[in-house]
Design goal:
The complex is a heterodimer of chains A (323) and B (387). Chain A has 323 residues and is α/β, with parallel strands linked by helices. Chain A folds into 2 domains: 31-133, no CATH class; 147-322, Vaccinia Virus protein VP39 (Rossmann fold, 3-Layer(aba) Sandwich), CATH 3.40.50.150. Helix content of chain A is 56%, strand content 14%. Chain A contains 13 helices and 7 strands. Chain A has helices spanning 3-27, 33-45, 55-67, 80-136, 140-148, 160-167, 182-190, 216-222, 236-239, 242-255, 269-275, 278-283, 291-300, and strands at 174-177, 195-199, 211-213, 228-233, 256-267, 304-310, 316-322. Chain A has a 7-stranded mixed beta sheet, with helices on both faces. In chain A, α7 links the parallel β1 and β2 (195-199). In chain A, α8 (216-222) packs parallel to α10. By secondary structure, chain B is α/β, with parallel strands linked by helices. Chain B has 2 domains: 2-198 and 371-386, 3-Layer(aba) Sandwich (Rossmann fold), CATH 3.40.50.2000; 209-369, Glycogen Phosphorylase B (Rossmann fold). Chain B is 42% helix and 16% strand. Chain B has 15 helices and 14 strands. Chain B has helices at 15-28, 77-86, 93-103, 108-116, 130-135, 158-165, 175-184, 209-212, 233-246, 277-286, 301-309, 320-329, 338-350, 352-370, 372-386; strands spanning 2-6, 34-40, 55-59, 62-67, 121-124, 143-145, 169-172, 192-194, 220-224, 252-256, 269-272, 289-292, 313-316, 332-335. An 8-stranded mixed beta sheet of chain B has the order 3-4-2-1-5-6-7-8. In chain B, α14 (352-370) packs parallel to α15. The longest helix of chain B is centred in the last third of the chain and has 19 residues, at 352-370. Classes of the chains: A alpha/beta (323), B alpha/beta (387). At the A-B interface, α1, α2 and α8 of A face α7, β8, α9, α13 and α14 of B.
């Protein structure tokens, strides 16, 4: 084990020990519930809902705890007379305030019921979705395990000239995703293309500016339609499931302006197959799609000028088109 | 390359303004780069009253142009603030404009100077104040926004979306901030970079300080920043006082900053107001660890100050920005609730080995990712990319 691995393990152990000890203390009843609730109130008040791990559940809980309105208003005062006056007023108006607060509390409880139903329904949808995903493709962790054992070249130098020419006249930004390395981006920029990258890799691409470290689907999900001048789709055609490849193409087409220049870089199925073990051959079936399939899909979306260029070693091909 | 920075105030005030000022000073030292700062004469973000003299003052190679404020925070602002916070999506653009006007600081001279500037790029920070919201659109084709934003109602205003969408580029403090803004407004395709910020430890510290605060022989945990509800300060004090009733730790909590809510000092908690930068660094150097309880951070410079000073940190796990920094650096711990807070504090207080290990990691992480050479290179490359 290297020093950095041993360091990372030590850190994980410390974090895990703290979480386990905190869990033990909580479940052993060391903390009075009222204490935890009052501490939570101020702590959670300033946490953005989006950052709560269990957003709906937590929101319902906070509505529930806020729903109870106590009619016994505080009567503390600096002077004994003030305290006495407040106590008298509270005593005289208590029947009225209790009546009102009971109705408000009841309203709060009624509000949380449909939210609970909604939460249950969301959880059920998530469960069914996960089951559906499992049926459609190999389990995500199995897939990434299999893919990590396959070496895929990520240098597309053969295509630099064609790509620069293809995107030269584009109006608007050109997205490259999933960006394999900064070299492709740099070469395009050097060729005068206004390009930026999206990569799902967490490794900092320090040598390149204007690169988003997020999943391509998340990035495309946040963009408006027709906001891109063009795109280069790579990486995903080699490794993702067919459904993901089709989804990536559909989203990219939606986010591109009419007349946008588009390109897809895909490894040849034969080259790909040669690198697969029997296990991967069985489990990663259906990818990558052939160049003819990409041409067909682009043609079906109304793209014109569809061209296919082969890399010098015939391991990759580039499909370009105009929308 | 000619670059201008526009910030509401210049000096050791405000996290984003301070960080931008430090960056501007570094860029101004690069041969061939012309840099200047436009700021108002105000220093207080709650009033924006004129306190500095208008005119140009040099800080090393950096000229700072200060302009008089015509209108600061007004009496109408609190009601507009409540209106905006209570229902962001229903606030029409005219009310939003009114809100930003009354939020201030409005400076017509500053607006005129920025419009007259021949800079290739004009950087505006942070997004929330009038100089950015009202002046950046006047030079939109050259305007780069440094939002310094966290998850808050103002961020969802349509005017903020318009500002970001029409800008030339965006500079973020962290990936978490970038993703938050891209989720909130459709701006993912606009040129942007995750820059982060650099720190400048002072050359001198204040050796008398610990004695004067009664901390000479007292171990303590430190919390630095505005002392207010939204920064999690009160939640932290609640947690701390509970901890002291349950745990045998002899640590004291020291809060450094200007309180907007009343917190009394006692044997458990010490509130240190109005301290200088040197004093803050003295306290950082001698603390056992730093706590940042805020869930609303776009970068959190103070974490990096703590690591530079050689101490680990404890952060609110619900803040994606700070938790990511700490997890990547392995430079401290985080807590999601009171029980985790209690156990983490006890561990940091009692385990000097873990403390030193995390402090060392944090320092390495700071130097590798946010050293000035790295930041300056990243910034200049981005300028050349978008100019």
């Amino acid at each position: 084990m290297s020093d950095s691995e041993s360091d990372a393990n030590y850190f994980k152990e410390v974090v895990a020990e703290i979480e386990a000890e905190a869990q033990r203390r909580s479940s052993s009843g060391e903390y009075p519930r009222a204490l935890l609730r009052s501490l939570d109130e101020e702590f959670r008040r300033w946490i953005p809902d989006a950052s709560l791990e269990n957003g709906v559940e937590d929101t319902i809980r906070s509505i529930e705890s806020a729903a109870y309105v106590d009619p016994a208003v505080p009567i503390n005062s600096k002077s004994p007379l003030g305290r006495c006056v407040k106590w008298t007023v509270r005593r005289l108006t208590y029947f009225y305030h209790r009546h009102v607060t009971q109705q408000i509390t009841a309203l709060g409880i009624h509000i949380t019921r449909p939210l609970r139903l909604l939460d249950a329904s969301l959880k059920s949808v998530n469960k069914r979705l996960a089951a559906l995903e499992d049926r459609l493709d190999v389990d995500v962790s199995t897939r990434s395990e299999l893919l990590s054992g396959i070496t895929i070249p990520t240098s597309f130098e053969d295509f630099d000239g064609v790509l620069s020419q293809h995107f030269k006249q584009v109006s608007g930004r050109v997205l490259i995703g999933d960006l394999p390395n900064s070299r492709l981006l740099k070469n395009l920029r050097d060729g005068g293309v206004d390009a930026y990258g999206v990569t799902s890799s967490d490794a900092p691409t320090q040598e390149a500016v204007d690169v988003r470290h997020e999943h391509l689907f998340d990035h495309l999900g946040d963009l408006h339609n027709e906001s891109l001048g063009g795109f280069i789709l790579c990486g995903i055609p080699d490794q993702a499931s067919i459904n993901e490849q089709l989804r990536a193409l559909r989203l990219l087409l939606l986010r591109s302006k009419p007349g946008a220049a588009v390109a897809v870089i895909v490894i040849h199925s034969e080259t790909w197959t040669k690198r697969l073990s029997p296990v991967a051959t069985d489990l990663l079936h259906g990818r990558p799609m052939h160049e003819e399939t990409w041409s067909y899909l682009l043609n079906r979306e109304g793209a014109s000028n569809i061209r296919v260029v082969q890399s010098s070693d015939s391991s990759y091909c580039l499909i370009t088109a105009i929308l | 390359m000619k670059v201008d920075f526009v910030i509401p105030r210049y000096g050791p005030v405000g996290g984003a303004e301070n960080a931008v000022g430090a960056l501007a000073r570094r860029i101004a030292e690069i041969p061939g780069w012309q840099v200047c700062v436009h700021a108002t004469c105000a220093t207080s973000s709650t009033s924006w009253t004129n306190e500095e003299t208008p005119g140009t003052e040099y800080y090393g190679s950096l000229p700072v142009n200060r302009y008089l404020v015509n209108s600061g925070r007004t009496e109408i602002w609190p009601s507009l603030d409540s209106r905006v916070q209570s229902g962001t999506s229903s606030v029409d653009p005219a009310i939003q404009d009114e809100f930003f006007f009354h939020q201030g600081p409005v400076s017509n001279d500053l607006a005129g100077a920025v419009q007259a500037s021949q800079a290739d790029l004009v950087f505006f920070a942070p997004y929330l104040f009038w100089p950015t919201m009202a002046v950046a659109p006047l030079v939109a084709e050259r305007a780069v926004i440094i939002p310094a934003a966290h998850d808050e109602p103002f961020l969802r205003l349509s005017r903020v979306g318009d500002l970001l969408k029409q800008s030339r580029g965006l500079v973020y403090g962290s990936r978490a901030e970038q993703q938050l803004l891209q989720r909130t407004h459709p701006i993912g395709h606009i040129p942007s970079t995750v820059l982060g910020w650099g720190i400048e430890p002072p050359s001198a510290t204040d050796p008398e300080l610990l004695e004067s605060l009664g901390l000479a022989d007292q171990p303590y945990a430190l919390c630095v920043g505005r002392i207010e509800h939204a920064k999690g300060s009160l939640g932290l004090v609640d947690f701390w006082r509970t901890l002291k009733t349950r745990s045998a730790t002899n640590l004291r909590l020291v809060l450094v900053g200007n309180p907007s809510v009343e917190i009394g000092s006692d044997d458990d908690v010490l509130v240190a107001r109005g301290l200088s930068d040197e004093a803050k660094w003295s306290l950082l150097h001698h603390a056992d660890f730093l706590i940042n309880p805020s869930a609303l951070e776009s970068f959190s410079l103070v974490l990096f100050e703590a690591w530079t000073a050689g101490i680990p940190v404890l952060v609110n796990a619900h803040c994606e920005t700070t938790r990511t920094h700490v997890a990547e650096a392995q430079g401290g711990l985080w807590y999601r609730n009171y029980p985790e807070f209690e156990v983490a504090v006890e561990r940091l207080a009692s385990d000097a080995g873990a403390r030193n290990y995390m402090a060392k990691n944090g320092k390495i992480y700071t130097e590798a990712n946010y050293g000035w050479d790295t930041l300056v290179r990243r910034f200049t490359e981005f300028c050349e990319h978008v100019a």
